[in-house]
Amino acid sequence: MNLDASLNADLHCHSVVSDGTLTPEALAERAKAGGVDLWSLTDHDEIGGQARALAAARAAGLPYLTGTEISVSFAGRVVHIVGLGFDHGAEEMAEGLRATRGGREARAREMAAGLAAVGIPGAFEGALKYVGNPELISRTHFARFLVDAGHCADVPEVFRRFLTEGKPGFVPHKWATLKDAVGWITRAGGIAVIAHPGRYDFTPTEEYALITEFIGHGGRGIEVVTGSHTVAEYARYADTALEFGLLASRGSDFHSPDESRVDLGTLQPLPGKLTPVWAELADRIHR
Ligand code: AMP
Ligand code: MN
Ligand code: MN
Ligand code: MN
Questions:
Q1: CB–CB of 161/167 below 8 Å?
Q2: Atom number of ligand 1 nearest to Cα 107
Q3: Whose Cα sits closest to atom 13 in ligand 1?
Q4: How far apart are CA 285 and CA 102, in angstroms?
Q5: What does the alpha-carbon distance between residue 122 and residue 103 come to, in Å, rounded to a whole number?
Q6: In degrees rounded to 5, what are phi and psi of residue 168?
Q7: How far is the CA of 244 from the CAs of 168, 183, 237, 255, in angstroms?
Q8: Ligand 1: lining residues by beta carbon, under 6 Å
Q9: CA-based angle 32:46:247, to the nearest 5?
């Protein structure tokens, strides 16, 4: 396998183990059918799907890197850090992710109370019907409930009206620290990657702080070509990767055939001038 920038690597997606709608097995099949050469399942704050993803990838003849996407609180905002190629049996990471998931149920009950106050009762029980993993009730599950119950036309509308800062169903939450998330991934033998940097609405100063602190903690990668970026952002974050000497990653952030704009394996390749994160993970690929 030629591990250069032209590889059809898809190193970011979600299964029913977090807030995706497909099983790890169905995702492996879909990635294979979509022409993916190297795949990773990156469930939010969870590695419970890794053994299944690994087995399904192996059965499909699809090279695989372990993955997760960790929720981090940074500068009053939520930042996502993807981990790739770590040892998924590492106890410290499993423990850290368990703690990160820990507050989700209480948060969900508070979210439901906020929604009830604006005339949407039963949202906790409603969202729970969409949850595949009881430890991972997320805003996405609330969004699916609100759409299917007729309160909004689609998931983005739910986020705009109800689930983002200042809106009735939004509850601020304390996630992992940047230092811990990067440390868990790195000490488990993996590489930490800043997920979809274009999504955070940071000022240039805040973004600089994120990247330099991330590197200071041992972080090495950044997503450049992702389903969460515009084409203009591919170019912008390609420059960022070069400027800071970061490895570049690529992934659809696929969640669901009904909701996701970008399917597994369909993004454009990484710009050739970048060093792909997978070039540094050759000995971590499961075949
Ligand atoms: P949570 O981890 O519970 O805060 O949920 C975050 C998840 O919500 C993300 O991983 C996305 O899947 C989804 N999400 C966040 N913002 C939006 C948005 N504006 N539109 C659609 N989905 C979103
Ligand atoms: Mn998600
Ligand atoms: Mn994310
Ligand atoms: Mn994601």
A1: yes
A2: 3
A3: 140
A4: 30
A5: 20
A6: -60, -30
A7: 39, 19, 10, 30
A8: 19, 44, 71, 138-140, 155-156, 159, 255
A9: 65
41-53 pLDDT, tens per residue? 999 999 999 999 9
Whole-model pTM: value is 0.98
Q: How far apart are the first and last CA of the chain?
A: 11
Burial of 106 (0-12, 13-18, 19+ CB in 10 A): exposed
Backbone angles phi, psi at 258, to 5 degrees: -85, -25
Give per-residue pLDDT as tens, 165-212.
999 999 999 999 999 999 999 999 999 999 999 999 999 999 999 999
Classify residue 207 by burial, with Cβ atoms within 10 Å: 0-12, 13-18, 19+: middle
Angle at 279 between CA 275 and CA 281, to 5 degrees: 130
Q: Give the per-residue pLDDT at 272.
A: 87
